[in-house]
Amino acid sequence: MSWLDKIPQKIKRAVDSAQRRNMPEGLWHKCDACQTVLYRTDLDENLEVCPRCGHHHRLGARDRLNVLLDEAGRVEIGSDVTPVDALKFKDSKTYAERMKAAQRDVKEKDALIVMRGTVEAVPVVAAVFEFKFMGGSMGSVVGERFVRGVQDAINNKSAFICISASGGARMQEGLLSLMQMAKTSAALTKLSEAGLPYISVLTDPTMGGVSASFAMLGDVIVAEPNALIGFAGPRVIEQTVRETLPEGFQRAEFLLTHGAIDMIVDRREMRTRLSQLLSSLMNISKAA
Amino acid sequence: MSAKRLTPSKLTYLDFEQPIAELERRIEALQVSHDEHAALDISKELEQLQKKNTKLLQDTYQNLSAWQISQVARHPQRPYTLDYIECLFTDFQELHGDRAYSDDPAIVGGIARFKGIPVMVIGHQKGRDIKERQYRNFGMPRPEGYRKALRLFRLAEKFHLPIITLIDTPGAYPGIGAEERGQSEAIARNLYVMAELKTPIIGIVIGEGGSGGALALGVVDQLNMLQYSTYSVISPEGCASILWKSASKAPEAAETLGITAERLKGLGLIDHIVSEPLGGAHRCPEEVMERVSNAIAQQLKTLQAKKLPQLLETRYQRLMGYGKFKSTSEK
């Protein structure tokens, strides 16, 4: 890099840090979309949806489960399943190191949390991705927990819900991670045989191996507004076709108009909409 | 390409094969002059050079790195799906189209006979020359390719035809139209349907097993890999540009990703390695064809002897067994 290239970066850094100084950590949050400065607590209460423009910020797995499931009767499934570094994978860091760092920072053992419970009294098993854990990438643990969740749903005659937020397969597990696509998809054939519904909820982002397996296999596929959903990443596509991508490409609204998903649902209505769908599919009468 | 040997002047040599290339060209030149001047006896010299060359080939191919193997897997003269179909099958009737949008030439398939047994054969197809490569989209299927395969899977199931898939793709095509028409869904649907398809399925990775684009033909009862083929969650170049921020680190990425047949056999992810002739499948296609044919024949016999519920249960359990993790509880 020449000295010339460094100048704009330095200026940019100065600007960035000036902005950070104006934003005390924790108290305020600037909306990623409309730039409105919001009270952190307001944003929390609004499920990380901007009250001004409706932009859906990312929401952690535990928070999602807290919002989705009724308080009573929650049981976590597969929490004893933890990752190993089968390939002794190493780039600039080893996979073992990356895994440990993620476990320390995110306080989860891996990127998928599965819980049995109820949604407005409808029995469900919900599998939710934690995007902060290595980009929500799918390795052996994600696959195994997913499958155990599906099995639990079959055993307890529950519906299955998966809320995806993932960059795709976890490269650090090599072909083992690719095979999780086949494993998770196969498990869903048994759920279908048992006549139990599967709702797939796509949130920002749902890409690669997750998108190209169970995420697109829902009996009903729901997406959050503006979520990025696709097989190949936008940059890879741009480099391949050497064209600028159309406006809104791979966003939830784009998928809806192309017939790839059933509906777009605001996060604040998700619980009610899912319970309506599931109670009808399972013919469970609802209290008026 | 039919199953014939290539002479050194017709053979494409990979970068790491340059010493072999020099030697083989020298041998070829000597042979020509030997033929022209029969009086000169250089047969001893020739013999020595040939010995030296065999040793050089052996030494090189015994110690191939994962990155070098991926070069062999992508060799432009490597036998492709239609070459296998031509050599191993009779009565091949190609079936076209997904009945919804288009026919994707990156995937070919149809009904054929294998040693007299009616089967469905489906595979990725790459092109030999520039024109054909473009026509085949470098073996990168679009959703309609996977949906054609899906249609043929169902057709095979309906008429109890065993399925043989030949896997050879850099990956599913990352294009605008492919995304618009649901590339993800097309791949996902194949994984789902293959898991419960009521007929035996044998898969053979003959070249590049490129990620989800390969797996969409790869949910099978018996998975074979040619000795110098690769199967990976991401291309070494793609992995390197993400994790090392530089595609030039592809050799390192190839090594650590564990993409070779040997490594994957060790991980229990494939069932059988079909060995290749010295120097790779393209050097002696007829030898590879015969070995692939034997592997298919044997596996077909075993799979067809199984009752359907047992076949499907074994396939399911095999899928559920994928993955390495720690767990303190039983399922």
TrEMBL record, chain A:
Pathway as given in its UniProt record: Lipid metabolism; malonyl-CoA biosynthesis; malonyl-CoA from acetyl-CoA: step 1/1
Keywords: ATP-binding, Cytoplasm, Fatty acid biosynthesis, Fatty acid metabolism, Ligase, Lipid biosynthesis, Lipid metabolism, Metal-binding, Nucleotide-binding, Transferase, Zinc, Zinc-finger
Textual note on the cofactor: Binds 1 zinc ion per subunit.
Segments forming domain CoA carboxyltransferase N-terminal: 27-288
Residues involved in Zn(2+) binding: C31, C34, C50, C53
Broad EC category: transferase
Highest taxon of source: Bacteria
Cofactor: Zn(2+)
Function: Component of the acetyl coenzyme A carboxylase (ACC) complex. Biotin carboxylase (BC) catalyzes the carboxylation of biotin on its carrier protein (BCCP) and then the CO(2) group is transferred by the transcarboxylase to acetyl-CoA to form malonyl-CoA.
Protein name per UniProt: Acetyl-coenzyme A carboxylase carboxyl transferase subunit beta
Native organism: Methylophilus aquaticus
Automatic annotation (TrEMBL), chain B:
The enzyme's E.C. designation: 2.1.3.15
Gene3D superfamilies from the UniProt entry: 2-enoyl-CoA Hydratase, Chain A, domain 1 (3.90.226.10)
Alphabetical list of InterPro entries matching this protein: Acetyl_CoA_COase_a_su, ClpP/crotonase-like_dom_sf, COA_CT_C
Residues in coiled coil: 20-59
CoA carboxyltransferase C-terminal domain ranges (all copies): 41-302
Protein's UniProt keywords contain Lipid metabolism: yes
Keyword Nuclease included in the entry's annotation: no
EC class name: transferase
Subcellular location, record wording: Cytoplasm
Source taxon at top rank: Bacteria
Keywords: ATP-binding, Coiled coil, Cytoplasm, Fatty acid biosynthesis, Fatty acid metabolism, Ligase, Lipid biosynthesis, Lipid metabolism, Nucleotide-binding, Transferase
Pathway involvement of the protein, from the record: Lipid metabolism; malonyl-CoA biosynthesis; malonyl-CoA from acetyl-CoA: step 1/1
Broad class of where this protein is predominantly found: cytoplasm
Catalytic activity: N(6)-carboxybiotinyl-L-lysyl-[protein] + acetyl-CoA = N(6)-biotinyl-L-lysyl-[protein] + malonyl-CoA
GO molecular function: acetyl-CoA carboxylase activity
HAMAP family: AcetylCoA_CT_alpha
Record family assignment: Belongs to the AccA family.
Quaternary structure note: Acetyl-CoA carboxylase is a heterohexamer composed of biotin carboxyl carrier protein (AccB), biotin carboxylase (AccC) and two subunits each of ACCase subunit alpha (AccA) and ACCase subunit beta (AccD).
Functional description taken from the UniProt entry: Component of the acetyl coenzyme A carboxylase (ACC) complex. First, biotin carboxylase catalyzes the carboxylation of biotin on its carrier protein (BCCP) and then the CO(2) group is transferred by the carboxyltransferase to acetyl-CoA to form malonyl-CoA.
Protein name per UniProt: Acetyl-coenzyme A carboxylase carboxyl transferase subunit alpha
Organism: Methylophilus aquaticus
Native organism taxonomy: Bacteria, Pseudomonadati, Pseudomonadota, Betaproteobacteria, Nitrosomonadales
